[in-house]
Amino acid sequence: MGDMESFNLPYGELLQHLTTSEKISLLSGNYPSPSSITRTPLINQCRYFLGSDFWHTQGIPRLSIPKLRMSDGPNGVRGTRFFNSVPAACLPCGTGLAATWSHDMMREAGDLIARGCHAKSAHVWLGPTTNTQRSPLGGRGFESFSEDPLLSGSLASALICSVQKNGIACSLKHFVANDMEHERTLVDCRISPRALREIYLLPFQIAIRDADPWAIMTAYNKVNGQHMSEHQEILQQILRNEWGYQGCIMSDWFGTYSTAAAINNGLDLEMPGPTEQRGKQVATALGVGKISSSTIDARAASVLKLADRVRASGILESGPESCPDTNQDRSVLRRRQVDHILSIVLLAHPTNPEEQTVVIGPNSQKSFFCGGGSASLRPTRVVSILEGLQGQVEQPLEHTEACQIYNQLPVLGDIVTAPDGTRGQFLMKFYTSPPTMRLNNSEITGAREAIDVLQLDDSNVVLYDYSNPAAPDNVVYATITADLVVENTDMYAFSLAVAGTATLYLDDDLIVDNSHDQKRGTSFFGSGSDERINHVQLVASRVYKLRVEFGSARTSSLTKAGAPVFGAGGVRIGCARYSDESRELDRVVELAKTADQVVVCVGLGPEWESEGSDRSLYELPGRQNELISKVTGVNKNVVVIIQSGTPVSGPWDQVPAVMQTWYGGNELGHGIADIVFGRESPSGKLPLSWPRVIEDNPSFLSHTSEAGICYYNEDIFVGYRFYEVTKRKVQWPFGFGLSYASFILGQPSVQIRGSGVEASMLVTVPVRNNSVTTSGKEVIQVYMSCVTPSAVKRPIKELKGFTKLFVPASEMRQATIEIPLKTAVSVWDVTTDSWLMESGTYKLSVGNSSDSALLSTQFQVPVTQHWTGL
């Protein structure tokens, strides 16, 4: 097979040496060698084009063209497996990274991702996610950066440049408007030309201009009537022609819905294998004239160019996967954690580690380090909030969860033991036939030979990329076994959610049946069943024999529009002890009364924020709001730590101090403790506005798909643009965040360099740190307003530049920000289908949040001009 060392010819020269079959083979995920098509009977050619590989492109061994390996992002490098994956370093989620408002931090994150790609032998990293959050309820909102296109595009650019300088390709995603999970493969997002250009395409435009990502991934959804994977206007006219993009355009996984239309309109690569729309279908379309040879050449050339670019990485084809956990990575992750934590409401001083501290809340001991779906990974290690706090105090911390926030019952964890005696693990044996079969209306049990035997530690078993040659159609059956022991005699709930069919037994007694009369739920990216739950009394220390019989996805008759089933499906086994939360909340009140200080850990988790479904609630789930109210009612020295990827509502007005910590990656506990105890000063800023109630959100009435359509009725007034023009108060504004230091911004000055559409603005702002003892970092934000009456309705102001500046205690520093003039003042002109840079007077305002940009100056644009391109 080829590798990066023997692949020496430039891609343009290789193209002329490829046969038509070889060119076609490059256009989809990996399947058997193209040369086999001439040796295979016609009846088997379809099987040839349905070969399987979830994470690789097709190689051409004859010319030493290697297969390229891809790996999810966007907050780490998972590698080639959902199922039983190799551990990886986990960065904060997208909104957490964006909360740093720091190009330097993004560059460090990019270096860490590049190291992760080398460890996983991955040539293409599937990230960053750069969609715009219309609503806090979007299931994947935590993956993206911001509601503001400038912040999103600028941070994405820094990250991409850092990754790609190491020879690793970034696949910027999801192009475009993939901001809801509801019917995501069906929904038609109806967006005005102005909103499409100024809000949703702009982050991608900035990233392409400033970083040139080597690949772009199309979104699942439609935009204005066409699926993005075959959108002629956006892929060809805008991306290729207007912006001059020359990289590889690839589909999201199973996000290609046509053969000729997708190829003719610009989609180079269908992922993954087995192909559904390429291979034989392309050969047929070529033969009947629906696709031209020159178009095939153009698509193949893009894939070859991608291979040519990543050869600088030196990563070999099909290389090994490893999981380094280095001090360098730990240090980077801890700094990222410190830099993105927001102190939204600040105590007069940090929490004192010498005083009696009680740690309370459902998120205190659980390690919610990332969101759910394709952004999830198996971490090298995770430090919980409780562990991080305990590591910085000498006395043992009293702690309790107080209440639960289950969206699904928790996985089995340490209550199970594998047959070899390993606690927290179980055995899973795979077969090609079920344990019993029906013959003449009778059930018979026959001998089965296992095709795989695996010992696993996570009872959320995702089999999207599981494969075995003995089961080529992904029809497999599995028996899961373990000993189960609980510490307390009590009532316990057991659950099964499944993409497939499953039954759960204890000592051969059927406890949960999720194999008949199934109902669709939100599990497994929305393709699985609902969670079936049953309760049983268990006796402490008694050994129970747990057995689960599983059948893969094709054994289920469930279907759901817009939610394709991946691979062999999966099964989630849950268990939880009955909890009297009212009694526990009363106990928490007594603990809080006598404590010197209380840290309350609340929020969401990967079951609430995940690919496959949108959130149904804006409020904190469960009894968390009640918990906060009870604790703050008896103790005034309280810090509430929120873990979520997007805003949530709670009784924030009655809380003395609030910190928003996102999903913080491996080192989340250490970073949070550094801030709580004052070893570091918080410097994060909100990348999203935080509405008081969900009804205030601009997309509230039109966030989901109705009859396959979603109207973006708020138009360009997304996030703070809407709240400002409607004078609607928010809980906390865009760009907001406090510090233990005290910063004062001085009067800005503006110098315009050059002229016309090539001009740029140099903005200078003095920044003083008035704190005598605390050094820190401040984010200087530059907003633009049009003073002269405009030809179109504009937002009151828009973010056009920013920088993060370290200022030592009692010192002054100068912030300098360069902004292209045309992007600072232009709007999209629908009458000329171009950007309009209007002449007139503009106001430039600076501040440290969108509602504190009070210092301003004005400048003139002398001549009206139109422009297109980047």
TrEMBL record:
Source domain of life: Eukaryota
GO molecular function, one term: beta-glucosidase activity
Enzyme class: hydrolase
InterPro entries: Cellulose_deg_GH3, Fn3-like, GH, Glyco_hydro_3_AS, Glyco_hydro_3_C, Glyco_hydro_3_C_sf, Glyco_hydro_3_N, Glyco_hydro_3_N_sf
Residue span(s) of domain PA14: 421-589
Swiss-Prot/TrEMBL catalytic activity: Hydrolysis of terminal, non-reducing beta-D-glucosyl residues with release of beta-D-glucose
SMART domains: Fn3_like, PA14
Keywords in alphabetical order: Carbohydrate metabolism, Glycoprotein, Glycosidase, Hydrolase, Polysaccharide degradation
EC number: 3.2.1.21
Gene Ontology annotations of biological process type: cellulose catabolic process
Pathway given in the UniProt record: Glycan metabolism; cellulose degradation
UniProt family annotation: Belongs to the glycosyl hydrolase 3 family.
Protein name as catalogued: beta-glucosidase
Source organism: Fusarium globosum
